[in-house]
Amino acid sequence: MNPHVITAKSTLDKKSKINNTLLERHQRNGNYFWRIISLLAVFFILGIIGFVMKLNSGFNDKVIWGYYAAMFAFILTTAQAAPMVAIAPRLAKAHWRRPISRTAEIWSIVGLFNLILFIPILWVLPSLEDRRRSLWFWDAAPGFESVPVFSPHIWTTLALCSLVFIGIMLLWLSALPDLALIRDKGTGWQQKVAKKLSKNWIGTSKQWHWLYHRLGILGALYFAMMVFVHFLISIDFLLVLVPGWIDALLPITHAANALQAGVATMMLTMFCLRKFGGYKDYIGYDQVWGLGKLLFALSLLWFWFWFSSFNVFWYGKKPNELSVIDLLTTGPYLIIFIGVFLLNFVFPLFMMIWNPIRRSFWGPPLIAVGVIIGTFLDRIRLYVAAYSVPGIGDPNVSKHALPTHSLPTHLPEISDVFIMLGYISGSILVFMLATKIIPVINIWEQREVVMYEIHKKFHRTEVKILGKPD
Q1: Which positions of the chain have pLDDT values less than 70?
Q2: Which residues of 48-62 are buried (b: 16+ CB within 10 A; e: fewer)?
Q3: What pTM did the predictor assign?
Q4: CA 410, CA 406: separation in Å to the nearest integer?
Q5: What pLDDT, on the 0 to 100 scale, is given for residue 17?
Q6: 453: β partners
Q7: In the chain, what are the domain boundaries?
Q8: N or C: which end of the chain has fewer CB within 10 A?
Q9: DSSP H helical ranges for 203-284
């Protein structure tokens, strides 16, 4: 028989097996999954209770909303940065990201949840009329009002909405071929939902060309908008709240931290899918090593950005600069900073250069857990400290310097604990519910990679050779 015919038949058999296996696994409804959903729902209800408790205190005192703002920033830094794991390697045409690209894209839907959490922070942030520090040029004198007094609220909201919209469109476009597969071969309510979402997808050459083109454009737009959102959030809802804090690197530092936390989020998600989701055949060493290299590089980048900012304040030694160092690093949040420094830089650096850990399935995910915890502590260190600074009306605080005495550590109340537990659970809950509608493993990309691979004899063994798409 012609070897090309055998190869074509083998390729078709592999594609058919991938379709059947992943489709069956997607439509499987296990009790274990719904038990986790129920537990997360209970924790999320606690978060709602904590939010109601906060509402009783009103929006005038921003100090009590510090942990709430930190939770919003934490979800923005982790879940909404995870899609970059699919975007960047796809633009580089890397094959190893195929089994986890859809998982990363599904995290973008958590942006809808975080957009709702963003609303109360808008009420806490004062307008420009109170003469507070701001990125926006505004003067109360008649004829000098160059921007609306609620400019931070308007433009940041539009930017965040744009990020969420682009992320959902990216997910929908990527899932179109798989939704069409569920429409044609699926069953139950998932088939009905897929029929509405798949539109007129039939897989023509024109549609595939359109899909590849749009995925590239949306991926680039998502990255650009993510950086822009971090720029606005880090300035309007963080830096301007601390008199004397002037750091030109903070916006890009905030975004770089998000890339590190996004990779860590995907590393942990990938480990759970392999260990508990039944995707051991699709998630292997290539994915662990690929994300591990990114996590190692971004951990080094974390130190570079932090030290570049810290060195300017430490070397200048102006009174207002020393007071900022005291507030954020050596003062009331010193213990938290030490934890952040160890978990986001020291541990990844020294553990990822140790081969037994780097080459294992459990080592990089364990480091990722540390990075996520470190990022969580870092958001608390920055946002709780910034929101605990008294307003400009306080006689001990000027527009350009913090008070000479150290501010006390703002410890979480029971409502803060409920909010932290509930909103993290709510993010995971939204992600897991989305996986029941859209397959967590990209089926069409798994079929596609079969066409790029061949097996050839190499000395006494056989190796797999992967081609690069044009």
Answers
A1: 1-15, 29, 130-131, 137-147, 391-401, 403-405, 455, 464-470
A2: eebbebbeeeebeeb
A3: 0.91
A4: 12
A5: 75
A6: 466
A7: 3-466
A8: C
A9: 205-236, 250-276
